[in-house]
Amino acid sequence: MIETSQIIPLFVAIPLGGAFLTSLISKKADWLADLLGIITTLAMFILSLVAVRLVYIYDILMYEMGSWKLPIGIVMVMDGLTSFMLVTVNLVALLVACYSISYMKKFTAKWSFYTLFLLMVAGMNGVIVTGDLFNLFVFLEIAAVASYALVAFGTEKHELEAAFKYAVMGSVGSLFILLGIAILYAHTSTLNMADMGNILREKGASNITILVSVLFLMGFGFKSALVPFHAWLPDAHPSAPAPISAMLSGVLIKSLGIYALCRVVFNIMGVTPAISNILMFLGALSMVIGVFLAIGQWDFKRLLAYHSISQIGYVILGIGIGTPLGILGGLFHLFNHSIFKSLLFLNSGAVEYSTGTRDLKEMGGLSSKMPVTGSTSFIASMSIAGIPPFNGFWSKLIIIIAAVEAGHYWYAFWAVLASILTLASFTKVMKYAFLGKLGEKWNQIREVPGFMQVSMLLLALICLVGGLLVLPTISNIFLQKASDSLLQGLDYATTILNGM
User: Could you say which DSSP state residue 470 is in?
Assistant: First the structure.
């Protein structure tokens, strides 16, 4: 058990080491930066699969940093939710790194791109594995600062403006989170999540816990781009290079926002009916407002950015319902959204790579010249719209059934309506971008390079077979373990402290 737990710090150490080596030895050779990026992300993905198996065997793993014991010392923790998030983050990171081999050639300084990219991955992994609330903030800031720089990577006027706006809004969210942590530390005299959860349970509800809950809801709401904290996202995601757009929408807002919010609310503060109702309301609000804002967009990437807000609403709605089925559906949709939204942003990057435009009105008939991009875009569009048998259908269905079972019929109605409007929105995308008659100015374009195609095809394959994750044999190992970590609530603290 002690030897097995040595895997946990590797999720931070390996990408940090990869970032250091990339900045040190890859300045003169782009191929070396590509190689280090692929090797590092592949190692992380393999380790995350190993983590799933270890959690299935041992249920929970802990690693003490240094020789200080709990609750004073810093500890890294791996449970079902941790392993679930690690697979999600590192799978997308691997495929994005593969896509970047060809795509990032049109930018300068590949070594700096991969350095920032691996720092962002290290930060996200750190947020996921830490058992200490202040270190969660530190890793969150590492990932966030790297993402600010990556949004501005093209250094054009609109990219710099979007990165500045993103940095300012992100800093406001971080300030709320830091203030909440400071108040909790003053109230409990500890920063260890498990110890903090135990102390809060003993002290009971108070005005302090209400204030901290509001601060965390606003702070992590900014990070996850929930309505009304979403203003930065429609500018930041379209402005970034396509691989970074895929990372931001696919995994960054989930690890820094949704995962951290769920961990704090369920396992430290303790979920209450009031918090549950707030989460469901914000989820439904994001779901509906996001899709209405997306329908009128003609910029391909901006349309996808608004749909990120909408789809995050489904995740928060499912988790906010608070039932075993609702949480399972919310987490399942988190994974599915990471896949099909990453694919859609890579598709938009492929279209822009070949045509030089993101305006849907200027496109048309691109499938005849870009069959891989066109077919994978169709699969991703059907997935996000919730059309069977694609993966998005199953997670949305579970959330809707959970809402009906819990008696939240209006929330189920809004979920169905948002899905119908999503289908309408992506019908427009397919019609104007890929179907119809090919414009004369696109006669000379070709399909994107092989590495970009491989990433899109693998993500499309997961969209096709992702529904199998709900099968009991697979679900018990992957999804159910993650759901159980949230369902145990404040018992998480007892499990950690007893385990040490």
Answer: G
